[in-house]
């Protein structure tokens, strides 16, 4: 049997969920004795591969590239996990939703600036009108709330999935 | 006709970004840019929130250095309340801030950059990561994981959780330090110091083979900025801004950081969401300066703790009093890990560290407040204005990584010119360009990149910018 293939991706989040993943500490090596990390900010693969068994998706969907990326991930992944509160509810990124994109960008790039005011538009991706949770864009298989979810919960989730069990993440809570 | 190489995403950094390299028709590098594709809008979304929420909200700018944001935010609110944090509260903030510097530096050095140093820039990308390091040099990986773990544990033991701990509050900290917690941390420090020393010894013996590389690895003249204490020693929590030029001469010996806006301007470039701060007296773009571990060790007289000072002396003997190559950020980061562990130990042995008075309380007494501290990646500024009820009306944040924006762009261009040749493009050339960005350990807490692209994408563009042809490999 081929080794399970795990990926981690972050969209519009603070990377705190990824830090909690690294908080597996020595258990990180334990998990990757059994599985391969095929795409993640921690490794150098530039292309999201085919046939990923589990993908942890951190962050809300806030830009056109997030949207595109997430659709590719869904097509190529068996178990997609909405990883953390931003992925599950849009959380802090969603605080911009009542404000609108224009005033948001103008505060940063026109008002709080001393030279060359103007909203960046070259190469950088356009923002979506609102920042939305992952499940509003693609089907989600497992929801793991938390800001961030604890390393213990992440470990339980991954080992349950690697052992072929339905993950027991009943201990997960929003916020803490 | 020019061609553009796009590296997307830049990997093994904390956040997503891309690099573009422009080649002329002979395949020579003419320009290069580092693009940050993140925009989150904290300066606007915090408008209308009670100012006491600012530490908790702004922590969410970054999951790697949430403690830094909480510290800067809490200090800005101290300023708005016109109080000094309770002295023990301030010392405990120092401890948790240092713990974060230790864990974040460990992540940068061991988890993200050590694969390049251990395997070399030309190694197979598939093993160039922390899991590969654990197989090749288990001791190194174990030490790195252990140092980071202790930093995170100290944050958890003090603050209740490892990431976004709700303990740092306006006026000080929420709860006093328990004696058992102090003893538990003190007991763990010696092993972490030993691990840091092993890493420094390994790095120093390994450095020899990188000495030539370092000369052109983001090596250029800039100013440097960092906080120092009364004696000019490294201070990661408080103090004065000291700014020196490339020769070590002070541009400003001792500035109250609350006056930052007189000295630091912010420019916008249309191709990146990361703003570009500059040293105002020198204008834009001449006012290029650097922050972070290398800058702090350049501006300070000494680190101020015995083991770190011993290593700093060797660093300066080997590299010079003002280190200019971006490569040496790694070395500086290791010395700061040692310094952080030693300082935590010193602070926890202070006579009042178990005092129950850890928080000053007050209402809003000023309409404006500024909080400045040293985050792992450099000087961090939080600046708020509030109404009579303490509701935030306006905020400006200068994030540590932003200060290095101009330097990162210059470093990318230098390394690209040195290593990238358009007529025989190879993966290691591009890994080197990414590696110079890793020196700055940028914390971009992130968004976006097109997936399904190959590592190397060449776009053939006409002078008017239209894409004529795309080649992937």
Question: Helical percent range of chain A?
Answer: 25-40%
Please give the CATH architecture of chain A.
3-Layer(aba) Sandwich
CATH architecture of the domain at 84-219 and 325-359 in chain B: Orthogonal Bundle
What structural class do the secondary elements of chain A suggest?
alpha/beta
**Overall SS class of chain B:** alpha+beta
Total helical elements of chain A: 6
Rg of chain A to the nearest angstrom?
17 Å
Uncertain regions spanning at least 5 consecutive residues of chain B = 445-458, 468-473
Task: Count interface residues per chain for the largest interface.
Answer: A-B, 67 and 77 residues
The order of strands across the largest sheet of chain A is: 2-1-3-5-7
* CATH superfamily annotation of chain A: NADH:ubiquinone oxidoreductase-like, 20kDa subunit
Overall spatial form of chain B: globular
Q: Biggest sheet of chain B, in brief?
A: 5 strands, antiparallel
Query: Tally the helices of chain B: what do you get?
Result: 15
The count of strands of chain A amounts to 7
Q: First CA to last CA of chain B: what distance?
A: 21 Å
Side by side, the strands of the main sheet of chain B go 3-2-1-15-16
Uncertain regions spanning at least 5 consecutive residues of chain A:
none
> Main beta sheet of chain A, described?
5 strands, parallel
Rg value of chain B: 22 Å
Tags for this entry?
A: alpha/beta; Rossmann fold; 7 strands; 20% strand; elongated; B: 473 residues; alpha+beta; Cytochrome-c3 Hydrogenase, chain B; 15 helices; globular
Could you characterize what this model shows?
The complex is a heterodimer of chains A (176) and B (473). Chain A has a single domain, classed as NADH:ubiquinone oxidoreductase-like, 20kDa subunit (Rossmann fold). Chain A has helices at 16-22, 26-34, 64-76, 85-89, 101-111, 151-162, and strands spanning 5-10, 36-39, 52-58, 61-63, 77-83, 127-132, 142-144. Chain A has 176 residues and is an alpha/beta fold. The N and C termini of chain A lie far apart (38 Å). In chain A, the strands form 2 sheets. In chain A, strands 2-1-3-5-7 form a 5-stranded parallel beta sheet. Chain A is built from 6 helices and 7 strands. Chain B is α+β, with helices and mostly antiparallel strands and 473 residues long. Among the domains of chain B are: 2-38 and 421-472, no CATH class; 84-219 and 325-359, Cytochrome-c3 Hydrogenase, chain B (Orthogonal Bundle). In chain B, 42% of the residues lie in helices and 18% in strands. Chain B is built from 15 helices and 16 strands. Chain B has helices at 42-45, 54-59, 66-81, 87-119, 130-136, 138-159, 179-207, 211-215, 260-263, 293-299, 306-319, 329-348, 400-403, 405-419, 427-439; strands at residues 2-7, 17-23, 29-36, 168-169, 172-173, 223-228, 240-244, 250-255, 264-267, 276-279, 289-290, 368-375, 378-386, 392-398, 457-461, 467-472. In chain B, β7 (240-244) and β8 form a beta hairpin. In chain B, α6 (138-159) runs antiparallel to α7 and α14 packs antiparallel against α15 (427-439). The radius of gyration of chain B is 22 Å and the shape is globular. Classes of the chains: A alpha/beta (176), B alpha+beta (473). At the A-B interface, α1, α2, α3 and α5 of A face β3, α1, α4, α5 and α6 of B.
């Amino acid at each position: 049997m081929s080794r399970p293939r795990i990926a981690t991706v972050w969209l519009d989040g603070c990377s705190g969920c990824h830090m909690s993943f690294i908080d597996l500490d020595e258990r990180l090596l334990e998990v990757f004795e059994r599985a391969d990390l095929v795409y993640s900010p921690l490794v150098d693969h530039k292309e999201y591969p085919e046939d990923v068994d589990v993908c942890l998706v951190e962050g809300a969907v806030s830009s056109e590239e997030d949207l595109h990326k997430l659709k590719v991930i869904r097509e190529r992944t068996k178990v997609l996990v909405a990883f953390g509160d931003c992925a599950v509810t849009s959380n802090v990124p969603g605080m911009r939703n009542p404000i609108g994109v224009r005033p948001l960008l103008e505060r940063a790039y026109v008002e709080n600036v001393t030279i060359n005011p103007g909203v960046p538009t070259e190469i950088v991706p356009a923002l979506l009108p609102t920042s939305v949770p992952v499940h509003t864009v693609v089907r989600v298989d497992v929801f793991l709330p938390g800001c961030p979810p604890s390393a213990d919960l992440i470990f339980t989730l991954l080992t349950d999935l690697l052992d072929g069990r339905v993950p027991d993440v009943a201990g997960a809570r929003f916020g803490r | 006709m020019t061609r553009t190489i796009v590296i997307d995403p830049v990997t093994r950094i904390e956040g997503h970004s891309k690099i573009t390299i422009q080649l002329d028709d002979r395949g020579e590098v003419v320009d290069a840019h580092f693009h940050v594709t993140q925009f989150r809008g904290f300066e606007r979304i915090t408008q209308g929130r009670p100012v006491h929420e600012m530490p908790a909200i702004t922590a969410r700018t970054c999951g790697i250095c949430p403690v830094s944001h909480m510290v800067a935010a809490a200090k800005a609110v101290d300023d708005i309340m016109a109080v000094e944090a309770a002295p023990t509260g301030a010392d405990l903030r120092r401890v948790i801030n240092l713990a974060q510097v230790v864990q974040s530096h460990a992540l940068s050095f061991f988890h993200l950059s050590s694969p390049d140093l251990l395997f070399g820039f030309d190694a197979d990308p598939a093993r160039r990561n922390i899991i590969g390091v654990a197989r090749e040099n288990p001791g190194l990986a174990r030490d790195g994981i252990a140092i980071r773990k202790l930093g995170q544990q100290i944050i958890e033991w003090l603050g209740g959780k490892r990431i976004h701990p709700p303990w740092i509050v306006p006026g000080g900290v929420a709860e006093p330090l328990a004696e058992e917690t102090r003893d538990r941390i003190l007991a763990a420090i010696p092993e972490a110091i030993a691990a840091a020393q092993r890493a420094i010894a390994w790095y120093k013996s390994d450095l020899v083979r990188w000495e030539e590389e370092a000369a052109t690895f983001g090596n250029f003249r800039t100013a440097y900025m960092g906080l120092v204490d009364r004696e000019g020693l490294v201070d990661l929590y408080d103090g004065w801004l000291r700014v020196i030029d490339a020769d070590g001469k002070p541009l400003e010996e001792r500035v109250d950081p609350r006056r930052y806006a007189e000295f630091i301007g912010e420019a916008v470039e249309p191709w990146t969401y990361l703003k570009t701060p500059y040293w105002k007296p020198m204008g834009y773009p001449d006012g290029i300066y650097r922050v972070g571990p290398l800058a702090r060790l350049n501006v300070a007289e000494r680190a101020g703790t015995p083991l770190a000072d011993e290593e700093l002396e060797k660093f300066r003997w080997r590299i010079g009093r003002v280190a200019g190559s971006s490569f040496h950020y790694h070395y500086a980061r290791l010395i700061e890990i040692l310094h952080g562990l030693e300082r935590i130990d010193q602070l926890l042995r202070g006579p009042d560290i178990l005092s129950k008075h850890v928080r000053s309380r007050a209402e809003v007494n000023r309409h404006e407040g500024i909080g400045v501290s040293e985050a792992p990646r450099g000087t961090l500024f939080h600046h708020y204005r509030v109404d009579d009820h303490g509701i935030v009306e306006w905020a400006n944040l200068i994030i540590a990584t932003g200060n290095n924006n101009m330097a990162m762009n210059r470093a990318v261009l230098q390394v690209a010119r040195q290593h990238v040749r358009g007529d025989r493009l190879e993966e290691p050339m591009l890994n080197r360009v990414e590696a110079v960005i890793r020196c700055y350990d940028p914390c971009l807490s992130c968004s976006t990149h097109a997936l399904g692209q190959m590592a190397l994408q060449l776009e053939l563009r006409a002078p008017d910018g239209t894409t004529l042809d795309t080649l992937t490999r």
